Amino acid sequence: MKKVLAVAAAAIVVAGAATYALPRTAAADGLLTSLTQDTADLTQASAISWGNCPAPPVGVQVDPRQSCGKLKVPLDYRRPHGKQVTIGVSRIPATHQATKRGILMVNPGGPGSEGLNWPSSVAQQTSGPVLASYDLIGFDPRGVGRSDPVTCGLTADELLPPTPYPGPDGSIAGNVAEARSVARRCAAESGDLLPYLTTANTARDMDRIRQSLGQRKISYLGSSYGTYLGAVYATLFPRHADRFVLDSAVDPRRVWHDQFATRSQGVADRFPDFAKYAAEHPGETGFGNTPQAVKAAYLKLAASLDARPIAVPETTTTLNGDLLRYLTTALLGQSDEAFPMLAQTWRAGAGLAAGDASEEEIAWLQQLLPSAGASAGVSPGVPADNTIAAAYAVACDDVSWPRDIKTYARAVAADRKAHPLTAGAPATVWPCAFWPSTPIEPAVKITDRGERNIMILQNERDPNTPLATGKGMHKALGNRSALVTVNAGGHLVYGHHGAAACATDAANLFLISGKLPDRNVHCS
Prior knowledge:
Elements: H1 2-14, H2 26-41, E1 67-74, E2 84-92, E3 102-107, H3 118-125, H4 128-133, E4 134-139, H5 173-190, H6 199-212, E5 218-223, H7 225-236, E6 241-247, H8 257-261, H9 263-280, H10 282-285, H11 291-307, E7 310-311, E8 318-319, H12 321-332, H13 339-354, H14 359-372, H15 386-398, H16 405-418, E9 454-461, H17 467-477, E10 481-489, H18 500-513, E11 521-523
Parallel strand pairs: 3-4, 3-5, 5-6, 6-9, 9-10, 10-11
Antiparallel strand pairs: 1-2, 2-4, 7-8
Helix pairs in contact: 1-12, 1-14, 6-7, 9-11, 11-12, 11-13, 12-13, 13-14
């Protein structure tokens, strides 16, 4: 249970992308080209010494075959011989070393999610032939986990929910004050590292890992934010990109605020799946026997918790409307198997609001809340706010965000009107509006130039990276990619059951044989 909810908590934060990139100029494009060439030509990446892995986050099981090591990379690739930072790397060797075809680098998403132990998770999800063909390579992106983690000094209260919600009346005044404060604290706590925590630099780190492993090419399996990271790598290093699978894709033309805002539509697309379930199982929720009644009851409960938040007994957490919305969105990001958990969460919230919550309902919330916080997936010894601090850093460093607060106020007002389920949260202001530095280079422009070697997997009703953003990635990559859509809800496709098994099989076939479908595929 805790593992499921830790994944849910991470997923809600990470799905994203937007369109506030710096203007592209010939000089800027030349800088990108030179940085890429510098990295490609540098052969000074030292070999990684493999040993035992550090202690993982609570609830994460590490495959006994997994080993870990460290690699030094430039903080600033414009100064490759300057200050170096540490990247934590992991490996599960292919089961058939004599016949393996290479390495499969994996990334769980984010930005801000730890990836060091992701090979252990992928090893449970993938097929025997894939495990025989590839060494699974994981890593903590720069600024994350065991890779010189950043912090903004955020408090426990600021990590649940991990990202801001407008006030019950739609005001963003509280968000603006918090964003200013967080931006100042991020600069004070991690200012020397912050400007260099970019997706492009993480892609360059990936190429350093490739070099250190003595590989001419890498294959790749990236989820959520990891799809954007993979597309950036395939753009900067097309000669070194082999077979790439992008699971639940962001739209590279929307990075970052616009992508985060698409979650309102994503939740609207996904919510009817649960409303139908709840209506068919009224005894589990007591929220009505039609989807319309379920939705109305949910909105009423959220509003009542906005007006009168309730302390969860024997915890330091207060359940308000925003926390209920966050937990709902996080659990909607799971497969349909999580619907009973969501029903129990609603029932417990309604019991608290009515003052008659049962011991079982209170115990459920006491179990749920620690697993749903942003610190749940953080390794021992790493700052508790690392996931969110790193997410802010990448989102703010990749592209410039609007500085005009009226832009966000208008966006929130429109979003709340169109999508009441999410109350305007996906469109509100982040610390990026007050970030102390500007992007050190333009965002990488994802195009259709390159080999046709990328597969995109996409659920049709994904609350975090909606179908439209998966299609946006496919459009940006053009003929380089094939799109596999799945008639299913929830965030992430690879390794899941039901209709998603068709997509997983297609991805495994591609990784093993290199066979990319001639046309897009639909899994029903």
